[in-house]
Each structure stands twice: as structure tokens, then as C-alpha cells.
Amino acid sequence: MKHLLKSILLILATITNVSGAAFADSLNIYSYRSQLLLQPLLDAYTAETGTDFNIVHAPKGLVQRLKAEGANTKADLVMTVDISRIAELAETGLLAELNSDVIAANVPHYHRDEKDLWTALSSRARIVAIAKDRVAQDAIQDIEDLANPEWKGRICTRKGSHVYNRALLASIIAHNGAAEAKIWTEALVANLARKPQGNDRAQAKAIWSGLCDVAIMNTYYYGKMKFNDDEPEQKEWADAIELVFLNQAGRGQHVNVTGAGILKTSKKQQAARAFLEWLTEEQAQRIYASVNYEYPINPSVAADPEVFSWGQFKVDALPITEVARLSPKAQMIIDQTGW
Known about the structure:
- By secondary structure, the protein is an alpha/beta fold.
- It is 45% helix and 15% strand.
- Strands 1, 2, 3, 4, 5, 6, 7, 8, 9 and 10 form a 10-stranded mixed beta sheet that branches.
């Protein structure tokens, strides 16, 4: 209860300072995404349609808030990062069916909810980064290769319980079964150069410093480091690594997604649906790519030239809902193996 109260207070503190009338007249979004990443999309849509937005930004606690508000919530849409958070929202029963031919045409079925309660909006690949001066480009082909004894003491990762790693392990369970996934995780932990810690950028720094030679990370962090003028030392971290896209001879590269859904209680579902449809079209998909170095979810839209230069890859077409379903099993394995 104390944790829940703290989360709710955090959300209340981040609400955009607008009047009740403004909430009534505008499209209202509860968002896990930071304002920095979301604002360019909102500005472009406002310029095109005149639609105004009010945003609640919070890194956690939005599901609890929505449950507490119930039918009285002012939210029209919820925007999230990571499949686990999207699935958690869907399980509340608070989301309306999208019923959009536009979204169905723009977003592959494996990146949409099987009950039509949410859609992915962008994707990020969880790849392996290698030390460019110490590891051959073809030394690692598949995520399963990280269990090989040649990598003992050479791998760095953030905690396995982080949503990015939990989703990755869930995808391995889906393809190889829980027993093999546990064996792989045990071997991965045995190969670690240090206790899991830090964020994805910290793993690139560890490669740069010589602490490890291989790391698991999301692709977009590479762009964030490569062009970080505020912290130029991160450019050196990016320069020390190369990106390896995995399982290209088999099932394809695991990706995670950002996504969104519409609240059943919204009185502006048509306007909310129109905004979600626009987010899956070319202009918005290009903004996603250029602002946060993410991949378009719409297969007809090319990646940003910078992101494209990192390499093309085959995507794992495992339904993202299956990743969400297996995430609790993945967490169990993470706890059992000490990842």
C-alpha cells in the first residue's frame, strides 16, 4: 500500500498543469513515454489537425491509477513502452477494441493484440553489442551462443528482471521451451564478467573500459550514445562497439515494442482512434525513428537513414502477446538462476 501511494503521488506530481476545462476539451493521454520523446509527435499532429493534448507522464503506476479512477478517469489513451506494460493494461479490462482497418493494414498481426485492445507503434531490437577490436563480427550468430564457454567472464548485462531482458527470455522460452531456456540462463550467468547492473548504456561503457567484450542492449541506445553532445564521453562508448543482429539464419531478431490503447470510458474514442491511426502512418513512423532511433512498426516505412546504416535484419514474427504471456515464467527462471 505504501508503494502504491508513492506511485500515485509521483504521477500526480507529473500531471501537466491544466485546468479541468482543458481536460474536457482536449485529447488526454496517460503515458509511460517521456515528454521529450512524445512531444514531437504531438506537435506534428496538432499542426496537422488542430488537436490539443494534455499529458500525464509517469514511469510507473499508471495501471493502478486507472483502476482507482475507474469510470471517472479523464484519460482517452494510454501509451506505453514494453510489451509487459501493454499486456498489463489489456488485462485490466479498461481498454476498448480498436476496430480500425487502418491500424490492421499498417501494423503486422504479430505486433497487435489478438483481442484488438492495443497496437504496437514502434519497435526496438534487443541485440548483442561486441567490442569491435576484440570480437570478430561473426563470432556470435544467435542469442543462444552467449551460453558457449568461450564467453566465460566476457559478458555484461543489466539485471535479468528488467522488462527488456525478461521479454527477451520469454521469447527464448517460446522458441526453445522452459527447460532449455533455464539451461541457457544458467550458462549466461556463469559467463558474466560482473554482477548484472546498470542500464544498457552502462554495458557499452563496460565494453569500452575493457571490463567485458559482449553485452546485451537495445539498438536505440547506440544512437543515443553516438550523438550525445551533452555527455560526449558516451560517443566513445558507442565507437567502441559494433551491433550484431541475431538468429538471422533461423527465427529472426527478437524485438520489443512501444504501444497504445484507448480507454473504454473515453467520450472521444473516435478522435483517439484517429490519432492512433496517424501514429501508424508514414509521417509519425519517421518521427519515431528520428527522435529515438526506433524502428517503424509499419513495414512499408523505411528506417531512418542512420538507423538503417546499422544493418538490416529479419524480425522474429513471434506474436508479441506470446512474449507477454510467458513473461512470468521468464521471471521465475531469472529468480532461480540469479540473473
